[in-house]
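Reading is simple: each integer encodes one residue's backbone shape. An example follows:

___
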Amino acid sequence: MNTEKKILEMAKDLKPYIINKRREFHMHPELKYEEKRTSAIIYKELISLGYEINKVANTGIIGTLKGNGSKIIALRADMDALPINETTGKSYASKIEGKMHACGHDGHIAMLLGAAKIISSMRKNLNGTVKLVFQPAEEGGWGAEKVVNSGLLNDVDAVFGMHLWVDLPSGAIGIKEGALMASVDSFKINIKGNGGHAAEPEKTFDPIVALIDMVNAYQKIISREISTFEPAILSITSINSGNTFNVVPENASMTGTVRAVDLDTRNFIIKRMEEITKGYAQAMRCEAKFDLFAKPSMPVINNKKLALFAKSIFPIIGNIVEPKITMIGEDFSFYAKKAKTLFLFLGIRNEEKGIVFPHHHPKFDIDEDILDKGSAMHSIFTYRYLKDF
């Protein structure tokens, strides 16, 4: 039996362990930078397997296992949950009110712990070193950036990660060369006008009218200034102004997000929004300020050679498909500042089991029967990358 088949068999044997760990994490979700219980479990597991441990990014863990070569690969799993109240009714549902693993990170941790066991058992056959990155705060906390800035991955050749994905059928492996996930920017626009009586609008500089015109103008950036073949989204997600029916307010504001898979496109949209904000405010005799109020996350762009390599080694695990680009963001993009990166999707959609709800939904769940495939993917990629890439 060759090594890849042995890994598959080990992963299948570990399925009860992987599912049990997933359920343990699911029942005790922790939000970004609160993952102390989760980290303690990971620490104990890795120590028992002979990994050297470094703590990182407040609550993160990096476990290092040294083999017999000079190449170094990192495998990443994110750990944080979301502020969502679970309504699945499952026996393993969240025990913490208002917190839930509604994105699959509990499965990511469990799959990487399964891989930790397999890789540890193969230590003598590893032609290099593996670093297991259990990262906190993917959900808006930019935990990946803190891991990168720690310097603990400065010697890494490649970083591999995956996401359980409800848009793919259970067990399908989604591999895409190049752009896979979008950049994420969060913006806020504040408009200052001149308030007054609603019955005398001619005596006011109405910030609401200016805001409405800006919203329409922003959408024309996407529909009239960006190619229809270039994925880009501009969404207004909140509008605030006034508090009574008979007063034109002094101020108005809105927030939203910009998503793109090409940095030039992203930069163009931001530039045009700034110009439109200034121009429309001036035309309506108001003042306006455009701000990016959160740190941007760049697009996830897969290394072409790594993607082709993965396509060549993963058919033994499952059906390979090419996923569509998603406008959802992922802070995995930060790892590309240090090394070659590859981010894959592992399908979990199973209509017979009712696993159809989208990520971040209170009824989100995963098909646990495929979790051993994730552990096998981590392990086979590590073994083959250190041996052949």
The first strand starts at residue 52 and ends at 56. The chain has two domains: 3-182+299-388, 183-292. The CA atoms of residues 51 and 65 lie 5 Å apart.
